[in-house]
Structure formats: structure tokens, C-alpha cells
């Protein structure tokens, strides 16, 4: 009964913006950037957001940028695509999520930090930025958005099980009949995301069961953010990285320590970059 109610709530979520999905699909098939920019320009909301960032005091440009084609010169292609994904995702996360003991804006900060961490991870592995990984990291806890009020209602029972040694995500499933990773996977599927993003969201707490290594990367990025205390809910405070998962990607404990320091620094810079005069940044 409760599960049916939860699933009906999923249907009430506003659909993920089509333009962001289209951009993701075009990047996936390596479409020329000019074509991608044309798709973005058709959407007034995204174009306005990109121009707002480009014309913000942070860049201190002497003249006003008035088109996406111009903006790319200053921001770079990858960064511009990142803004599209970020703008599309923000509205889902901003509220407080009391079931997970998260104040307003905290889950969004966690999402952004995780996306930044996934970029760092790619760099450490000597690979280029991957927009699908960035998006999966940003959306990995989307299930919490719907599940939070149910977790709040069952919190006493969930925490009793956690104290008895059960991982939070398993306790969620036992008490509510659903966990936030499974629900997140369902949401991503409903939004027609590519398979690797669905898989990464679904298995971000259990990456050994995943079909692709995206889940392992999101898992590592997630734990790095929680270790730094960035938007870690009551469910993630004791989460650890599985050493086999780490080894599977060819990483060591030393890599993790170094990434933690880099993440703190990069996250602070990212925050200041996106905090505009109106204070509506990350
Ligand atoms: Fe999670
Ligand atoms: Fe998380």
C-alpha cells in the first residue's frame, strides 16, 4: 500500500527538462557542439541561466554576452553543458528533507559536491570529463526527494535497525518497503535517462551489483562528500568505500586522501563561482 502511494508520488514529479536530456543524448553520440548550442538556444530558461552566469561579476567581462555561441568562448563547451545539467536538476533538490535530517539546500549542496568529486575522480584516473557521470552524480540521491517524508514517519524504527548493525538503505527497505536508490533508479528510468545513469543511481550504495563502472565512481564520489560532511544525511554518515570497489578502479587509499583535499578546495571554488549577486548559487 505504502509502496503504491510512493510510486504515485513519483508520477507527480515534474518531468526532467527535455532540452537537458537532448543535450545528454547529443554529447553521448559526439554531435558537433554548434548543433548542441542550437538546441540550448531554443530554450529561453537555459539560455537566460547561461548568460546570467557568463555576465556575473565573477568573470568581470567588459561587455555583455548575449548568445550561447558567444558564452561558449568564455565558459568552454564542457562547462556550458554542466550548467545545463545543473539548471535542470536544481529544482528537485532545494527543499529540506527532514527524513534524512537535511536542512533546505543541503541535499543540493551534496549533489553538486558529488558531481565535482566525480570530475576529480575522472582526472585522477586520467580520463576526460564525462557528462553522463556528472549527471548521475548530481542525481544519485533523487530518490530521497520522494522518500524523505516516509523515512521521517518510520525514522524511529529505521534507526533502531541501524543501531543493530543494518545499513540504513536496508533498514529503509524493510520499514518502508522501498529504498532511495531503487526509487531513484525508477525515477531515472521514467525520465528516459541512458542506461548507465539509471544503473549508477540504482547501485550507488551497492556498486558491486552494477552493470557499469559508473556506479562505483558515483559511490566513491558520494562517500568523499559525506566524509567532508557536505550534505551527508543521517543515512550516509557511517558509509565507507568498499576496498574492492576502490581496487577495481585502480585507486589506493592515498588517492582517496589526496582527492579529499582537492575536493574541499574545488568545491569551495565552485560555490563562489556560482554565487551571484542574488545569492542564488549552489
Ligand atoms: Fe544515497
Ligand atoms: Fe549521497
Q: Could you explain the architecture of this structure?
A:
By secondary structure, the protein is mainly alpha-helical. The chain has one domain: Hypothetical protein af1432 (Orthogonal Bundle). It contains 15 helices and no strands. It has helices at residues 2-12, 18-28, 33-41, 44-54, 68-75, 77-93, 106-124, 131-139, 142-163, 168-176, 180-190, 195-202, 214-227, 243-248, 253-274. α6 packs antiparallel against α7. The longest helix has 22 residues, at 142-163. Residues 276-282 have low confidence and may be disordered. The structure holds fe (ii) ion (FE2) (2 copies). One fe (ii) ion (FE2) binds next to loops.
Annotate the secondary structure layout.
Layout lengths: L1 H11 L5 H11 L4 H9 L2 H11 L13 H8 L1 H17 L12 H19 L6 H9 L2 H22 L4 H9 L3 H11 L4 H8 L11 H14 L15 H6 L4 H22 L8
Bound molecules: fe (ii) ion (2 copies).
One fe (ii) ion binds next to helix 11.
- Second CATH tier, the architecture: Orthogonal Bundle
List low-confidence stretches.
Answer: 276-282
What is the number of helical segments per DSSP (H or I, 4+ residues)? 15
Radius of gyration: 19 Å
Taken together, the total number of domains comes to 1
Q: Number of DSSP strands?
A: 0
Classification by helices and strands: mainly alpha
Largest sheet: none
The CATH topology is what? Hypothetical protein af1432
User: Oligomeric state of the chains?
Assistant: single chain
The string of secondary-structure elements, in order, is HHHHHHHHHHHHHHH
